[in-house]
Design brief:
By secondary structure, this protein is an alpha+beta fold. The protein is built from 10 helices and 4 strands; from the N terminus they run ααααααααβαββαβ. The chain has a 4-stranded antiparallel sheet with strand order 2-3-1-4. Strand 2 and strand 3 form a beta hairpin. The longest helix has 32 residues. The model has no long low-confidence stretch (mean pLDDT 85).
Amino acid sequence: MKRKRIKVLMEYLNIFIGTVIASIAINMFLVPSQLAPGGATGMAILINHLTNISVGSIIFMINIPLFLIGIKVFGKEYGLKTLVGISLLALNVELVKEVVPQINKIIDFSNSGNTILAPLYGGILNGIGLGLVIKNGGTTGGSDIIAGIFNKYFKISMGQSFIMIDSLVIITAGFIFGVEKALFALINLYTTGIVINKIIIGLGNAKMVCITTSKIELVRKIIIEDIGKTGNYYKAEGLYTKQERDIVTVVLRNKEIYLLKELISEVDKEAFVVVSEVHEVLGRGYTF
């Protein structure tokens, strides 16, 4: 029980650290360079430019209604960590500016030679921050919630939903900040995604999961209903015990691995789960 409390405490500490790092990226690179790389943060930067309302306040105002909708759609189990992630990001975006008042002037983005620093280093820092949040079971809301709703009600895959949402924000940014800034925002979005993947689970965009379980129906329900994927099921015999066991194999995107492991640990603590690298995936649900 004590170890579990320490584990939970460390997860929340890492979510806090992750939102601080993401907040530094937002204040130091994204806002001063006028980059809006999709999601709620990108929308907040656009609205901040048009209204001068603080970015942290806008992030909170966008995400809280989405979070409440998420609870209604996905149930109360949607998670305290989502609310914590949303709140901490909004709070830390403002706190970082208080602690380092001149953070937006550290790099002179009026110098065209410095422009490329924003999408690259902003993307790396933002990816590290968001990667820590996601790896510890949290989320900063925004696109994640909307994509989940699209997936549940319109059967649009999470990956395609993210592309649609982020593309809409970046296209809007192109009209407000100019086409050049929108193109830099794409670089930032790509850099952030790569770093998040590396932080969460290492190289590659997909992983194969092999699950040996005695609770096959519960695992089947998790994969099909909670994750929105399918896989293969077959029976095997243990070499030592010679007992028949159920085995499921499924290919998932990096972002889905943590959720699967958490859900399986809740229904079958004795499940044997192996996650392996997949170098290429072709077919329905993975080839855009």
